[in-house]
């Protein structure tokens, strides 16, 4: 029953975000026939990625932990030795393989985005497999620190997958009527960085980081598909830069995530480094600082909403001449004729 409901919800979201007319006209309106003809393979593609990511999340939560900042100086030499290698390998996996096929003008977005999907899944699975293999023969199961050499092993595993299944980079995975929207892919990716910006100075477990990324990625995509169009119809809001879905909702989710992490930040784990992140922790407890973080989220959202409504109403008043031509320089600038060619 739960799986059937999840499948029905995934079908509804998939049909809404991935339906594009077969003639390639992204501005055309899709017909109900196109929305109801999603092949089972496409549904399975979405559900399989969700199931795989949930499985990886469970493994990361049970297997890995972050090193204590108190011992960061002891690992400085190892970090300086491995980090340049990690940067080079990471760029090769996520940019090198992706841009192999970008010379095809009509396939550049697929080359980068599909490579990104395969690399992300392969990297996580590679880290899990390599780490679990090291547990074989041990007396008992222990958690492992997620260090740079471990992430390098994950990159190498992803490279092996991308090389072995190179056809994925040059094969159309979707049908003519179901395609990815690069706006959703780009903004969902950036939304993860926005959400983690609140707590990036803290030692966050891999499972928590993955969870935050999943939540804000889904929220951002749903916002672009459902929330923004509805706001445009109801209150005629024109969010041309995707501020609500890229910075608004991910920022709020990231703020709550940072507050939750602040509640659990202990002096025993961070040592003296904690006051460099929260200077007020010199005279506040973890619970007090966490409540201050939550208060800052509510106050910031309230100030932004009230001031935004006030400024919008002020600009719409008769004190200002209303713009007639949107996204056109001719209303305010002299535009030479050759610029219209």
Question: What does this entry look like structurally?
Answer:
Residues 165-328 form the Ammonium transporter AmtB-like domain. One of its GO terms (molecular function) is ammonium channel activity. This is Ammonium transporter AmtB-like domain-containing protein. Keywords: Membrane, Transmembrane, Transmembrane helix. The chain is mostly helical and 341 residues long. The chain has twelve helices and two strands, in the order αααβααβααααααα. Strands 1-2 form a two-stranded parallel sheet. α5 (108-134) packs across α6. The longest helix has 30 residues, at 286-315. The model is unreliable at 19-38 and 167-177 (pLDDT under 50).
Concise synopsis of the structure shown:
The protein is mostly helical.
User: What would the average pLDDT be, to the nearest integer?
Assistant: 73
Please list the strands of the largest sheet in the order they lie side by side: 1-2
Find the count of extended strands (DSSP E, 2+ residues): 2
Low-confidence parts lasting 5 or more residues at pLDDT below 50? 19-38, 167-177
Number of helices: 12
β-strand amount: under 5%
- H and E string: HHHEHHEHHHHHHH
Helix content: 55-70%
Span of the ends, CA to CA: 59 Å
> Which structural category fits the helices and strands?
mainly alpha
Tell me, briefly, the overall form: globular
What's the structural domain tally? Answer: 2
Major sheet attributes: 2 strands, parallel
Radius of gyration: 24 Å
From the structure above, extract its key features.
two-stranded parallel sheet; 12 helices; mainly alpha; 2 domains; 341 residues
